[in-house]
Amino acid sequence: xxxxxxxxxxxxxxxxxxxxxxxxxxxxxxxxxxxxxxxxxxxxxxxxxxxxxxxxxxxxxxxxxxxxxxxxxxxxxxxxxxxxxxxxxxxxxxxxxxxxxxxxxxxxxxxxxxxxxxxxxxxxxxxxxxxxxxxxxxxxxxxxxxxxxxxxxxxxxxxxxxxxxxxxxxxxxxxxxxxxxxxxxxxxxxxxxxxxxxxxxxxxxxxxxxxxxxxxxxxxxxxxxxxxxxxxxxxxxxxxxxxxxxxxxxxxxxxxxxxxxxxxxxxxxxxx
Length: 272
What we know:
2 domains, two-stranded antiparallel ribbon, ATP-binding, kinase, Phosphorylase Kinase, domain 1, Prot_kinase_dom, three-stranded antiparallel sheet, 9 helices, Transferase(Phosphotransferase), domain 1, ATP binding, alpha+beta
């Protein structure tokens, strides 16, 4: 019989960055333990010694979504982006997983393609809950955290943020999957200019070859005002999950993993 393989995440109790690394790690452990979802990493066990905390998780072997979006060919040339059918498969799985987290009153706060791993069936798995936070229904939180390219305007301006910040990052992710680049960032741009663009400027238009449905979804999610952003309107997160771009996907089937993924990681690309 094939042996089950696991991944071990080792974190230093004194990491030189966080003053309270131990409580931050234990908070992350608590969050993952409360998540019971097919697209969230499984925490099998935790251990600690004097210097480290160890998290034993399921092994997700297909690599990062980042490497599916940005690929290097044999000649060293890079190709970015993917067709819309593949992008919407990942996007709806991720949107549904975020909605699940938000129903548990958690916000994730670090959605990016590096934190989404692809399993052997081709489904996305969300990992790294280091920035996740428990918030009550109408509470806003003010910690400046996340990854610059995916930060919502309200985080940049420190106006307080909630679940809408995750939706913004989802909008950036959808744009990046479909267009192959970030909606606000370009190579060589400094962080202040990026933040100014996020807060004040409209994103670069999607190429004309993309469907009007994806353009509509991205426009409604990359809305600067979190109160007007899709996901926060009267229909709540259902507005995202039932958007026309996703109309040809079977959400109950995705939840049961009976829908065949558009990309299955080849055996030679599997980790472990």
